Amino acid sequence: MRLSGTARMIQPRDDDWQAVSADFPDYAGSRQVLNVTVESVQTSCGMGVPFMPYQADRTEMELIPYFEALGEKKVQKYWAKTNAKTIDVLDTGIVGD
Fold first, then answer.
1. Any residues with CB less than 8 A from the CB of 40 and at least 6 apart, and which?
2. Is residue 92 a contact partner of residue 85, using CB atoms and an 8 Å limit?
3. Who's near 67: CB < 8 A, 6+ residues apart?
4. What are phi and psi of 62, to 5 degrees?
5. Mean pLDDT of 10-39
6. How far apart are CA 60 and CA 19, in angstroms?
7. What is the CA radius of gyration of the chain?
8. Which of 15, 19, 40, 95 would be 80's cystine partner, CB 3.0–4.6 Å?
9. How far apart are alpha carbons 32 and 95 in whole angstroms?
10. Is 57 helix (H, G, I), strand (E, B) or coil?
11. Smallest Cα–Cα separation from 24: which of 14, 13, 32?
């Protein structure tokens, strides 16, 4: 499925973070919630997509312990190094002004 539209990124430093993140688990390292206005939906048969068997949920055994061990200040440094730009080199705004 392909969704096209516009999105607003809400980050922990934003005023409405508490309200929009309340419906999700409070994981260490949580960095954004996207509020998407979907303008177009396309479906695909999926025949070109490979089968990929589910092996395990890595959240509990890798993701959460990693970010909890870093602590908030090191998470901010991690974001500045790895998440400040999108794959098309646009500023994400994740590290603030």
1. 2, 3, 4, 5
2. yes
3. 27, 28, 29, 75
4. -130, -55
5. 91
6. 24
7. 16
8. 95
9. 12
10. coil
11. 32
| 92 has pLDDT over 90 | no
| One-letter amino acid of 17 | W
Q: For residue range 57-83, list pLDDT tens digits in order.
A: 998 899 999 999 999 899 989 989 998
Nearest to 60 by CA among 33, 27, 34, 32: 27
Closest to 92 in 3D by CA, of 83, 10, 5: 83
Place of tokens 């705004």: 93
Name the pTM for this structure.
Answer: 0.65
pLDDT of residue 97: 59
pLDDT score, position 13: 87
d(CA 34, CA 43): 21
Beta 33-42 vs 2-10: how paired, if at all? antiparallel
